[in-house]
Every structure is written in C-alpha cells, then in structure tokens.
C-alpha cells in the first residue's frame, strides 16, 4: 500500500465528511478563545492552590516545582518552532555551505544519518513518512504563526516539503504511575521539553545539510496519523498512539523537510493486534473519571464534541471536552488512560513519597 494512504485506511476515512481541522477548534484553544465552551478561561492552574492546600498525595509544593522545572524548555525556547530561522556566525559551520545541499548522498544514506542524529540527540524512536496533507491542520491558532483571535492563517507547507520525520519520546514512567497528580504533569512536561529541543536540533541538522527543516510539536499537523504512517504504532481506544515498546507513554513531534528520504511502512500486524486488544480491554475507559473514553465494543466513529473532527469511521472518539474538565479539576493533564494501558508498562501506581525515592 502507498504509505500516504495507510492511516486513511486504518481510520476508515469518510472522504465526504472528513475535512482538515482548524487548530483553534481543539479544546485547549477553545478554553482560551471560545466563550461558548463550558471551561472558557479555565486552565490547569484554576484549582492548583486548592490542591496544594489539600495535602493530597502528589500535590505538594515540591511536586508542583518539579512540574514547573520539567516544562521549562518547552515554555522558554522560542527558537524551536521557527520555520526559517536566520542562521548566523554563531553556528559552528561556514555559512555558505547552507546553500549547498548534500546532493551526492542517496535517500537511504540521508535517512540513516537523520535517524542516527535523532536518536543521538535523545529521541526514543524515529520513523519517516511522506506527508499526507489531510493530516495537516487547515489553519493555525499559534500567535508565533501570526494567528490572533480574529485571524487563523492557513497552514501551507512549501511545495517541495513532502517528508515528515516523526520522533517519539518516552514519558518518564514513575510520574505516569502517579497519575493524575502534579507528578504526572511533570512527566508530560519533561517529554514536551525533550520534544522541543529535539525538533530544534533535528531541524538544524537538516538545515546544516542545506535543506528545509520545519519543526513541529503539536502544531502544524496531527502527530498520531503521521506516526502511524511512519510505522511508530497504532491508534488505541484512548485516542493515543500505542507504541510497541512504550504503549501510550509516548509523546510525538515531527520535522517536515524537502530532504530526500526513504520512508517506513505502517506496522499493520501491530495495528491489527491493537484493534483486537482494545475491543475487549477497555482498561482506559474504566480508569477515566470523566466518561470521555468510549466503552463500545467496536469503534463507532461518532464524533462526541466540537473538539472532535468528524469523518473517521473506525475510531473510538474521545470526548476531549469532558477530558478537559478533568484537567481543570485535577490541575494536571490526568494521564490515567496512559497509566492504565497495559502496553505502557506503568500499571502499578506509586505514591509521591515512593516517586521521590526512585532512582
Ligand atoms: S486524560 Fe484522564 S480524563 Fe482524559 S481521557 Fe484520559 S483518563 Fe479520561
Ligand atoms: S487500555 Fe486497553 S483499551 Fe485502552 S488503549 Fe490500552 S489496550 Fe486499548
């Protein structure tokens, strides 16, 4: 099968219904921008002081401080998400080489070096796919891409940028075992900080070879279908990518490029295994306090809220609006559906005291 169409087939895309999704309809942006959203202007910070005062396990000032520390690079590295940064004399290379791509290397050789560089810089896994445009957002909601409340510019990659390097980062397991507390949020933040420096470094690696490198965290396009196309896993009932080695404890980012690369193929046997397993498992749905995860035996393909993009027939849609409610209530991105998934290998919960004693 042509890799461009792999995740379309896996998802059972209804081409009469499915449209590229505008990023500002995602529940995180709706909480900031949409006054009709029930949790408008409520965030993970809304109930933090209440949790701090409660004495609950996983909500101490030390747990909160670790969370703040873990997110630091993601929050404070503006260079990371720039599409066309001006490289200058501080780069450790002769700048005229930037106009001279490595045209004597083959796509296979380029792929070898890109993957090795990503693993060297700290990626847990890397896969490569051609970009299926359907998985790009139709428009951006990011201020650094000139979006504002009244203006969401369309997403358009340069025409020659046809490859996506999809990078997976393992979430630190002990924080995940503390879901849904500040310590779980710290594990998420640590993975985001790693994603942020990884996309910055791999985009620079590619630019230093004379090609375009466009970094992307959760912005620009949907990471999960790109990751499926790149052979990194399968879609689970919990709406997350299930990776063979890390389960749902796996965060995704990508770098888009015009560098000639050879692509990976989707892991159809693992996809088929997850589809069967999720039909009967339902551990994530049982663990979820909000009822956001479907308990239907088979994927019903029914979008549940305005934050879902309809037109995907073979999917258990997760009600992201209900999930967001729990984020606000728990002052954390929860993660109980990550912890409960047997593929995540983080099944035994631990206390904060145990967390701080782990090595
Ligand atoms: S993060 Fe929590 S609330 Fe959201 S779907 Fe997972 S278990 Fe449910
Ligand atoms: S917990 Fe079970 S049902 Fe949920 S994603 Fe993991 S394997 Fe699938």
Features:
359 residues, alpha+beta, 4-stranded antiparallel β-sheet, two-stranded antiparallel sheet, 14 helices, 6 strands, globular, binds iron/sulfur cluster
Topology:
Layout: H1 6-11, H2 27-33, H3 48-54, H4 61-70, H5 72-76, H6 107-121, E1 125-130, E2 163-170, H7 173-177, H8 182-208, E3 213-216, H9 223-229, E4 234-235, E5 241-242, E6 250-257, H10 268-281, H11 283-287, H12 320-330, H13 336-339, H14 352-357
Antiparallel strand pairs: 1-2, 2-6, 3-6, 4-5
The structure holds iron/sulfur cluster (SF4) (2 copies).
Could you describe the 3D structure shown?
This protein has helices at 6-11, 27-33, 48-54, 61-70, 72-76, 107-121, 173-177, 182-208, 223-229, 268-281, 283-287, 320-330, 336-339, 352-357; strands at 125-130, 163-170, 213-216, 234-235, 241-242, 250-257. The chain is an alpha+beta fold. The protein has one domain (3-357). The strands form 2 sheets. Strands 1-2-6-3 form a 4-stranded antiparallel β-sheet, with helices on both faces. A two-stranded antiparallel sheet has the order 4-5. β4 (234-235) and β5 (241-242) form a beta hairpin. α4 (61-70) packs parallel to α8 (182-208) and α6 (107-121) runs antiparallel to α8 (182-208). The protein is globular, with a radius of gyration of 20 Å. Bound molecules: iron/sulfur cluster (2 copies). One iron/sulfur cluster binds at residues 236-238, 242, 277-278, 281-284, 340-343.
């Amino acid at each position: 099968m042509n890799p461009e169409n792999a995740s379309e087939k896996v998802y059972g895309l209804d081409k009469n219904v499915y449209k590229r999704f505008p990023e500002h309809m995602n529940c995180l942006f709706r909480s900031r921008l949409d006054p009709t959203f029930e949790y408008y202007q409520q965030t993970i910070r809304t109930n933090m002081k209440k949790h701090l005062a409660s004495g609950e396990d996983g909500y101490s000032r030390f747990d909160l401080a670790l969370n703040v520390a873990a997110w630091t690079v993601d929050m404070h590295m503006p260079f990371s998400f720039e599409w066309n940064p001006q490289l200058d004399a501080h780069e450790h290379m002769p700048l005229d080489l930037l106009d001279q791509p490595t045209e004597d290397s083959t796509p296979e050789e380029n792929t070898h070096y890109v993957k090795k560089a990503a693993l060297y810089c700290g990626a847990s896994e890397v896969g490569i796919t051609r970009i299926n445009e359907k998985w790009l957002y139709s428009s951006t909601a990011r201020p650094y891409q000139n979006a504002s409340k009244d203006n969401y510019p369309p997403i358009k990659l340069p025409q020659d940028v046809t490859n996506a390097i999809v990078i997976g980062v393992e979430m630190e397991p002990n924080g995940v075992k503390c879901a849904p507390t500040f310590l779980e949020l710290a594990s998420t933040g640590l993975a985001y900080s790693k994603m942020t420096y990884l996309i910055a470094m791999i985009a620079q690696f590619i630019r230093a070879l004379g090609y375009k490198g466009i970094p992307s965290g959760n912005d620009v396009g949907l990471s999960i279908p790109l990751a499926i196309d790149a052979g990194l896993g399968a879609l689970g009932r919990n709406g997350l990518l299930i990776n063979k080695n890390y389960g749902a404890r796996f965060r995704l980012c990508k770098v888009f490029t015009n560098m000639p690369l050879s692509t990976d193929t989707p892991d159809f046997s693992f996809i088929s295994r997850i589809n069967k397993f999720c039909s009967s498992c339902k551990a994530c749905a049982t663990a979820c306090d909000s009822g956001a995860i479907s308990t239907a035996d088979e994927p019903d393909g029914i979008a549940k809220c305005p934050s879902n993009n309809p037109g995907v027939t073979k999917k258990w849609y997760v009600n992201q609006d209900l999930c967001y409610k729990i984020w606000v209530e728990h002052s954390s991105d929860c993660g109980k559906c990550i912890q409960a998934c047997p593929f995540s290998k983080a099944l035994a919960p631990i206390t904060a005291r145990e967390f701080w004693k782990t090595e």
